[in-house]
Amino acid sequence: xxxxxxxxxxxxxxxxxxxxxxxxxxxxxxxxxxxxxxxxxxxxxxxxxxxxxxxxxxxxxxxxxxxxxxxxxxxxxxxxxxxxxxxxxxxxxxxxxxxxxxxxxxxxxxxxxxxxxxxxxxxxxxxxxxxxxxxxxxxxxxxxxxxxxxxxxxxxxxxxxxxxxxxxxxxxxxxxxxxxxxxxxxxxxxxxxxxxxxxxxxxxxxxxxxxxxxxxxxxxxxxxxxxxxxxxxxxxxxxxxxxxxxxxxxxxxxxxxxxxxxxxxxxxxxxxxxxxxxxxxxxxxxxxxxxxxxxxxxxxxxxxxxxxxxxxxxxxxxxxxxxxxxxxxxxxxxxxxxxxxxxxxxx
Amino acid sequence: xxxxxxxxxxxxxxxxxxxxxxxxxxxxxxxxxxxxxxxxxxxxxxxxxxxxxxxxxxxxxxxxxxxxxxxxxxxxxxxxxxxxxxxxxxxxxxxxxxxxxxxxxxxxxxxxxxxxxxxxxxxxxxxxxxxxxxxxxxxxxxxxxxxxxxxxxxxxxxxxxxxxxxxxxxxxxxxxxxxxxxxxxxxxxxxxxxxxxxxxxxxxxxxxxxxxxxxxxxxxxxxxxxxxxxxxxxxxxxxxxxxxxxxxxxxxxxxxxxxxxxxxxxxxxxxxxx
Lengths: 347, 274
Fold this sequence. Notes:
Oligomer: heterodimer
CATH class of chain B: Mainly Alpha
Number of helices of chain B: 13
Number of strands of chain A: 21
Structural class of chain B: mainly alpha
Shape of chain B: flat
Distance between the termini of chain B: 50 Å
Distance between the termini of chain A: 31 Å
Largest sheet of chain A: 6 strands, mixed
Number of helices of chain A: 10
Radius of gyration of chain A: 24 Å
């Protein structure tokens, strides 16, 4: 269990503020945020590499606010794996045991165990400069985990890989986490990566926590317009609640009226994920939110097609390829957009 | 005919493609000749008889030996005191850091005779540090210790700057990873930072040693006797003229060339090995 209470950290011109975070033992938490949000500083602070200016950090019930990194039991793996270039793979992996003066027999035992997990046995004699990206990553993980840390910190571990190996690594990381059950904090700016891996997601922006929640909560119920934008919700409208019909709130913007299922009495934004918007040629019946407009642009994103419809306002709608091909709308064509009240999230 | 046309065209193309390289090579050759011709001329055109005599002259040999090992001790002292400073400059920011870095280069800028005089005002028998050291039997005027501080003053910037650049090139995150793996700051330095910056540090130490060997101005102010080779050459030139000075100079050049080409070769080989 990691607990950060009101933590403030200053590094050069950047500061983390009011960080309150509790991570349960054995969970996989993804810290998600744009470049420069302070994700790496947060990880390094948990590792003890920056001094905590205010607040405190508790690790398994022990206050470690001022504990030096070497005594925390927290391992970090950076984006480009930062293997020691002057040491062989074997020397890299056993580095943590050597500096702790672990007995030679124990080192051999641990090395065999970790080689079994990461399949790095054939690489042991090589220098890091001769390894491929995937191999480097396995060695970096083996080095980080051989000491049996309480917490594993991963700083953008997949961003150096191509799309295909990245998907492979999702599965591998999950697998390793299942085997070792090490509490893991994984930093990324990639929303998809976060969705694929996380038990919990912490969204961070400009040094502050923007939202903490399960992936589905972040996905469907963003806590702010920033989170909605960052998770690619796409349709975000400013306005206010003006009334209620049965259990549905009426949310008015300058140009449209939306029906939303919400227990909020005031709201500033309505968010409708582009995936939740249906596109039809015929006018749909018995759906509360229906808009007519002309197709303004069609962007092929491979598996999905992003269509912008001018109603006005502009709506974005993400259709799976097969569905798009059945409808096959053209630019300028009049279409209907619809979505249920439960798909409108009010902030 | 066709063959020659082809040849001419290829040659023309090659020239177009490599013309910058050709131009740079011409300039490179000029500066290399400028460095080498005077030294070669002095060594190879000096009177063989006189050279042979100088090789057997114990004053000359003693002087060369003194120069080499005084500069070596200097480099060792510079290493112990300069490497920590280089590390701090590479890794930490503090107020007036720019000023400190500028001050380190000062010994390179000031005339070395001025440096010698400045040292005399601190390490001379009648001055503060000179008095203290005198009390424990170390004297800086006309003594080995004087040669060493004169060499240290003018040569340590080379080591500090080179080591600083070496440390800067070591990714801080490698140190971070080592810390989280359980290494103490000292272990991190010894096992990660130092080995990775080693080549720059060694090369800086070598430069420092070389600079020590060649020092004249600062040494002559503090210590005329025992005579380092640069002073011996000067003394022979003043007393007996060129004919006596050239063989000593030639021997020093030969010895230095052997040592430094040897070291460069070793450093280069290490680079390939990495």
